[in-house]
Amino acid sequence: MVDTYRITGVAEELGGKIQGAVGDLTGSNRNSVEGRAREVHGEVENLYGQAKDAIVEAASATRNAIDDVAGPDGREIKARVREAQNAAGETYERAERSVRNAAREAYDDAEDAYDNVGNHLRRGGREVTHQVAKHPVAALLAAGFLGYGIGLLIHGRD
Q: What HEC string does 42-104 produce?
């Protein structure tokens, strides 16, 4: 039995991969980071669906095995199985909340990191522009030396 979380997780993961690839191709860091975050979120959701399916299958198999062993009047065994199923359900719900919170936090952290990097790049760009405007000859010389150095590294000395 395929859980809807598995389907939506795979779709989210695929959409994230596509968005990340498009962001990489177009040079859009925001789309690239958002795509990677969506991809991770989709993977987590898919894993959550797989875990949910496994628990449902295990509970069903356990119930069938106990019914076979206990027979029609195995009330005590069936009561213990119900208790175990309830405990498993509670554990499952806690795990679900933890996974969802972790995915949400990872997405938020990725978004914050993207915003911080963008702010630093803009600030650095403004500072470079200011310094070039303030010292144009020095900037021209620095650019020339940098270009010469890169040329030496690429082609080596003859």
A: HHHHHHHHHHHHHHHHHHHHHHHHHHHHHHHHCHHHHHHHHHHHHHHHHHHHHHHHHHHHHHH
Q: pLDDT per residue over 101-158, tens digit each?
A: 888 888 888 788 878 888 888 888 898 889 889 999 988 998 898 888 888 888 866 5
pLDDT, residue 2, reads: 65
Report how far residue 70's alpha carbon sits from residue 87's, in angstroms, rounded to the nearest whole number: 21
**Model confidence over 83-92: pLDDT tens digits?**
888 888 888 8
Residues 6+ positions from 43 with CB-CB distance below 8 Å: 9, 13
User: Taking the CB of residue 48, how many other CB atoms lie within 10 A of it?
Assistant: 21
Give the integer Cα–Cα distance in Å for 13 and 8: 8
Burial bucket for residue 26 (CB in 10 Å: 0-12, 13-18, 19+): exposed
Tokens representing 54 are 């496994």
